[in-house]
Amino acid sequence: QVxxxxxxxxxxxPGGSLRLSCAASGFPFSTYTMMWHRQAPGKERELVATIDxxxxxxxxxxxxxxxxxxxxxxxxxTVYLQMDSLKPEDTAAYYCNTYYRxxxxxxxxxxxxxxx
Length: 116
Description:
The protein is built from no helices and 11 strands. By secondary structure, the chain is mainly beta. The strands form 2 sheets. Strands 2, 4, 5, 6, 9, 10 and 11 form a 7-stranded mixed beta sheet that branches. The radius of gyration is 13 Å and the shape is globular.
């Protein structure tokens, strides 16, 4: 079965950095687009970043462009989200995601809190 297992996250001061990881299994990871979303309390889930199967094409939300970097290691079946210059408004639960065989799959979620 498809599994997306996240790690990373936590509490960081404004201006700091964190890296999230998402280890995938149960599907041909290297041929599928991967995404990171986030959801803050009281807000809708937001698509943060997308990476194509090869890692050659990435797309970012305007709110994180220039600060976040999505990447992947197809040899390790893992997608990453490097978050730099973090702001309090980046505080949210972060989720990795893929769409495989007409089904959306989600990681378990990782809390990121940016606060002094």
